[in-house]
Amino acid sequence: MTTQLTPVLSAIWDQEKSWTLDTYTKNGGYNALKKALATPPTDLIQAVKDSGLRGRGGAGFPTGMKWGFLPPDDGKPRYLVVNADESEPGTCKDIPTMLANPHALIEGVAITSFAIGSNHAFIYLRGEVVHVYRRLLQAVREAYEAGHLGQNIHGKGYNLELTVHAGAGAYICGEETALLDSLEGRRGQPRLKPPFPAVEGLYARPTVVNNVESIASVPAIVDKGVEWFTSMGTERSKGMGFFSLSGHVNKPGQYEAPLGITLRELLEYAGGIRDGHELKFWTPGGSSTPIFTAEHLDTPLDYESVGAAGSMLGTRALQIFDETTCVVRAVMRWTEFYKHESCGKCTPCREGTYWLTLILKRLENGEGTMADIQQLLDTCDSILGRAFCALGDGATSSITSSIKLFREEYEAHVTGAGCPFDHAASALFPYATASTVEVSA
Amino acid sequence: MTATADKAAAAAVETVKATIDGIEVEVPKGTLIIRAAEQVGIDIPRFCDHPLLKPAGACRQCLVDVASPGPDGNLRAFPKPQPSCTMTVTEGMVVNTQHTSAEADRAQKGVLELLLINHPLDCPVCDKGGECPLQNQAQSHGRPESRFVDVKRVFEKPLALSSEILLDRERCVLCQRCTRFSKEIAGDAFIDLQNRGAMQQIGTFDEDVLDFDGYRPIGVASEDESGKAFSSYFSGNTVQICPVGALTSAAYRFRSRPFDLVSSPGISEHDSSGAAIRTDHRRGKILRRLADQDPVVNEEWITDKDRFAFTWQNLDDRITRPLVRRDGELVEVSWPDAIAAAAAGLRSALEAKRPKGIGVLPGGRVTFEDAYAYSKFARVVLGTNDIDARTRVASAEELAFLGNHVAGRGLGVTFADLEKAPAVLLVGFEPEEEGGIVFLRLNKRARSVFAVAPWLTRGNEKLGAQLIATRPGDEGVALQNLPADAVAALSQEGAVIIVGERAAGAAGALTAAVSLSQQTGAALAWIPRRAGERGAVEAGALPTLLPGGRDVTKAKARAAVAAAWGVEELPANAGRSAAEIIAAAAKGQLDALVVGGVTPSDLNADFVKALKKTPFVVSLEVRRTEVSEYADVVLPVAPPSEKSGTFLNWEGRLRSFPTAISTDAISDHRVLDILAREMGANLGTGTVREISAEISTLGADDSQRPAAPNVKATAASGDVVLASWHQLVDEGALQDGEPYLAGTGRTSVARISAGTAARLGVGGAVSIKGAYRTSIELPVVITEMADGVVWVPTKSPGSWVARDLGVEPGAAVTVKGATP
Q1: Beta-strand relationship, B592-596 and B616-621
Q2: How confident is the model over B504-530, as a mean pLDDT?
Q3: The domain at B116-311 falls in which architecture?
Q4: Helices A347-364 and A327-341, interaxial angle, to 10°?
Q5: Distances (CA, A) of A98 to A36, A105, A118
Q6: Disruptive mutation site among A173, A186, A332, A345 for chain B (greatest number of B CBs within 10 Å)
Q7: Which residue of chain A comes nearest to B197, CA vs CA?
Q8: What is the pTM of this model?
Q9: ipTM of the complex
């Protein structure tokens, strides 16, 4: 039986002006908030714990448990910070959500803040997406005007300020402690842990940092109940989530489905691989996750199964590549991203991604050696588990996994003096081939 | 391995036991693995870690294997190597470093390889070569050959962070020690990381400096009002703690190799803190000075003045041979001739038919032993109490204060006490300007700080001080009317009142400080500026004090000292203060003057007049100064690096130092010993050892102290009064010949309140006039400060107060507009 899609956050995306408060309310929006404000906060936290909702930002940490880490209320401020710094190559779920259905996030923010006893929440948005920023600001304004935010919400005596902050466009600020530093106006670099944000987060106060999709899922859980949520997904990966398909598929986009769906099923919804081509490799969770091949078409896309298969569910960013794609070139592109985005704090990531990029460019240009392939693995080994934060680890995933799966292709770049692929063939748009990749720092 | 020593004193610390490389270690809870390893002699390589800075975990060089007991009590290994510089030891932890774990060793080698890919191979020309942690680490643990065959990232170099501090960015391993020091220790966050990834670099936010043109440092780097450049009095410390050769000082860059240098321990001669320094010299020439480690005093930091200002002692005007005036000209003579001439001159002054007296002005910069010799020489040989080291703002009230509260009190308030103090009141004292190390200690943690001052300096602002806006001269009144919150804060246990030497300029201020101390229970500390001040007080180089806090007017005190000195009696009358000696001499009322280490431009014009009018002047000096121009005999003495001795720091701590560079230069105390012998007296001050022995037998005598000061506080009069103090980096004589340091000094400005400026109708620039026809013209900075006050720096470029105004702080001055 094919797994059915379960549009929840995306349920109203196809409606007229789906992003407006009117549309959202017409579809039952802000009912959950009403219900939540009448529920004891501890019950709300318990409900989210019971739902098994796991962090949708990639790590999959149980959301309710994270809230439970906050120390007891001492009467001083505590904060909810929504991580909307979606920047990973391939990941495209939070931005469409905020664009098409911002009120789901805002309602989630209000419920979560109420549950954890916060009176000031922040949405830290990736700076480049100005259109999303405008839409969020507009939605927040609407919510304030409608009394879903601000003083004495719904007349229940609960106050909440919501600040939308646009970052300056740095991937590292998706790391929660770097995000907090950036939000405080500092240079965005990961903090030393402990103390963890739950103890000393924003402005050294207890803080919950959650992903957009996690928070936006909360209203539905409150509204439709824990059982409804746990009826979806697998035993330990409950509920629905976005699967963002991109690349060589006929109908790329966001598919909201229960966790545990397979790529084979998703490809059916997405109209299959580009006509006349076949799947070569794909990422299950964005560029930081080890790549899969056609062998993994039937791997259930839940945290456990993907982990067992040697990768990570991550942000469920499925980048699909067909046989026209040069894996070395794709990996080089990703690695360039990590080199560009490395914050520079720690040696392994800063220097390692720089070196990896240089080697990959040489390989792609046919100037590499067999020793370079080993050097890639050795350098990845010097980064993985040595870097300050997960960015360094993520940078190595595609390299080590691709060498494992496609070593002969790397070797062909050495023996055959250059990239054996026609780059124009893999492009989805008219493409002028550059003869070589520019090698520069 | 440095920790603040007083931390060890905390009783009953909870400890944890762990095993590192098979060696069991017990450390206080919260100790980092890297520190615990040091305790059992295991050195884990590191770059970003520094014991006095907060952990960063940035370089990842110190990765080790760690296992700790789980809830079930079984050891559980961490899946990946952990940074030992950020992880604390927990009970039962098992740590395996590179010595015992192949995984840790592999991790460290991997990090080292990465650190080196973008690091230039310029060790042969790098200042750090030979004392470089990265070089050492690469040689002991690195690969013999690099596998990196690609292009290294390069930057133009060097980048001038200031006129003194230069940065070679391509050498930088981005450990952030410099930025962390600047933020955490000095509070001068003028440098920070910029850009990211492999292009991340340290920089200032001064566009002029960032803009680079050719192979030389460019751009203005002096502090301006916007505070943009790396303008810190402590910037030199970043050079010392840089684990590679990225930060260098303009003064030392390319001058030497560390393995060619001889290192000698020393004590800084620049302020009363007595910071431990290391003097590095080669063939008798000082190449650089570094901070030495002394946990109880300066920890590992010194001011830029301590570090860079050493050229003064070997400038062209250094005197190496005695000079005697013959036919109006100073001519070089032999030592015996010079001593004979000096003795003859002093003898004839003593034996004059109607002797008018001889004054002794030893200055505030000589060592304890020198001050003692001057003190003894004045009493025993010259038979006078007319000796005063206080060639600065001073008062009779201060004499009583020093005698009653400071002299012979031994170790009083200490640096550790300052660090712990919950509240501090500053009176006539600017910690950052007048006692850099004091500032660093105070800056270590937040506390209530109150500053009785005309305005809140940046240094005091960094301390979070609350300003009690006071006109100079009104300090006594201000102390009597302290706000209630200040009094409450000072009533906490461990609170400290710090009075600076400038407090002497306000009538009743010291009296009020003493009674405030009694009222609140706060400890009282006197922190003078110059290195020799406390020693001079203890040695009795003051007109009313004999060594050990003995009142010269008390017969018992005189008898005790006379017995120790082997003389029958000592002069009984209280002597004259430095100002009185100078005033008398200027009127021709003295027969002779013995002057040591006094710079005329630090005093008003009376001093030169005094030198001119006094028939016989003996000068003991390192350099030829204006005093020499009027001296009859000039006896060269050794600068601090060429002598041994002791500075007594403000705490009352003996800070002894050996001779760094052996020359034939001799100390003041020995010169005076020889001179005394020529005059028929055995002073017994030939060696430091003799003097120390004599001082320790003399000891202090609490029963012979002068009475406590009792002066009524009065307010300063005058429409606009002068406020002034020395800035740490200025045009003091001990900073001569060091242009790079001078470039880091602050721009001279006059400060005036908005109200006063409006009332006087001035702005842009002002011309200030005191007692002389000359004036000081400076740009004006409108400052939130006491009304009716104009502040200028005491001896900064374009602002030499004593020479050009001839008045002291608290005096009325006239302020007029000037063209900027």
Answers
A1: parallel
A2: 97
A3: 2-Layer Sandwich (3.30)
A4: 150
A5: 22, 7, 22
A6: A345
A7: A344
A8: 0.93
A9: 0.93
